[in-house]
Amino acid sequence: MSEIHILHENSEWTAPLIAALEARGLPYRDWFLDEGTVDLSAVPPHGVFYNRMSASSHTRGHRYSPELTATVLRWLERSGRTVLNGSRALELEISKVVQYAALEDAGIPFPRTVAAVGRESIIDAWDRIDGPVITKHNRAGKGLGVRLFRDRKALRDYVSGDDFEPSVDGVTLVQEYIQAPEPCIVRVEFIGREFLYAVRVDTSDGFELCPADVCELEDPACMFEAGNDPAQIGKFEILENFEPPFLSAMQQVMRQNDIHIAGFEFIVDKAGKAYVYDINTNTNYNPDAERRAGVSAMERLAVYLEGVYRELPLPDTAKVLHTRELGIGR
């Protein structure tokens, strides 16, 4: 039997999508990719495979979920399965350096960035940009490592001190600080590579908040979770009749990197120039903003997945193995 397979490591984030699939009566299977085995000589099950693996999986105790997912995705792709947000998309999800290369290829501006490994190298990166700078983790999510430094000494004190927080992959990004005339960023959502909506995010609480996900470093809350937090209500606003900058170029990035569902985040400086600084292929949606705007991205996503599912050829049932036989999924 063909199914819609959801590859992930966070059941809380996946629950709204599963509810939308169930409401439409669609068959699905939940693949919780934390541990398991993959028999590379086996034939994968039939269906549509939607990858929702997150770069921040290690913060939930799932350190090697991206690596396991990369193995599964290569196995599926090699077997000719229909994969949404495939192995190339995962590469972007877990590396901002890879994201920035893709943005540069499409002609999309991003803040000047120096990638550094080692504490002294991070401090030396200041001299290349001549501050102020923001540090962030290369494999991030949830605002990991996001800090603002206005002088070299402050950066050195932090990097040399006990509070220094290294990236899980060892790569710290030192990035020029883009000062916006208003404390906000915009996130542009795509489903099926089609523009869905843009959401304005209030970042006035400062750099303890990730501008993309509004994740407070000591009390993480993604866009999804923030919709249930009274303190966060009003920080998200879906913009009406908004035309995003670089729209066609963003779609080019998606086509070139096997991305089907994503959010692009950008900030505008005082001169009115926009910079994209993050691509999130594990995009979440803020439920409070959607309720006020009368839209539901998860319902739209379920419709898109159904459309891809309905177009699948009939499986050769004699060759299909259940995921439990392969030691992965639930």
Walk me through this protein's architecture:
This protein has about 325 residues and is α+β, with helices and mostly antiparallel strands. It has three domains: about 5-90 and about 305-325, Rossmann fold, CATH 3.40.50; about 95-110 and about 180-295, ATP-grasp fold, B domain (D-amino Acid Aminotransferase, Chain A, domain 1), CATH 3.30.470; about 115-175, Dna Ligase, domain 1. Helix content is about 30%, strand content about 20%. It is built from ten helices and 13 strands. The protein has helices at about 10-25, 65-80, 85-95, 95-105, 120-130, 150-160, 225, 245-255, 285-295, 295-310; strands at about 5-10, 30, 45-50, 80-85, 115, 135, 145-150, 170-175, 185-190, 195-200, 235-240, 260-270, 275-280. The strands form three sheets. The protein has a five-stranded antiparallel sheet with strand order 11-10-9-12-13, sandwiched between helices. A four-stranded parallel sheet has the order 2-1-3-4, with helices on both faces. β3, α2 (about 65-80) and β4 (about 80-85) form a beta-alpha-beta unit. α1 (about 10-25) crosses α10 and α5 (about 120-130) packs antiparallel against α6 (about 150-160). About 45% of the residues are buried. Mean pLDDT is about 90; it is low at about 205-225.
